[in-house]
Amino acid sequence: QVQLVESGGGLVQAGGSLRLSCAASGLTFSSYTLGWFRQAPGQEREFVAAISWSGTITKHADSVKGRFTISRDNAKNTVYLQMNSLSPEDAAVYYCAARYRGLELVVTAEEYAYWGRGTQVTVSS
Known about the structure:
The chain has 125 residues and is mainly beta. The protein is built from no helices and eleven strands. The strands form two sheets. Strands 2, 4, 5, 6, 9, 10 and 11 form a seven-stranded mixed beta sheet that branches. Strands 1-3-8-7 form a four-stranded antiparallel beta sheet, with no helix packed on it. A hairpin with a 6-residue loop joins strand 5 and strand 6. It starts with a strand and ends with a strand.
């Protein structure tokens, strides 16, 4: 059974940094595109970043570009999201998601088949 488990969330002051991790099991990790999404209260689930099966291609939402960096370690079956210069607008539950690798990176949540339960990120001003 596929399982994605996020960790690393917590409370951070504005301007600070966090690194989220997502550990995967039950799938051939290198065969999947991995993505990060976030959802704040009362808001729709929002694309944050995605990374190809090889780790050589990445995509970041305009709202986080230059501040967040997605990466993966296939040997550890883990994908990361390094978040720098955090602001209160970044506060949300962050979800890890996976889909079978394709020719293009996908930014639509509905096209990701597997999801973690999320980790809370709170940013104080």
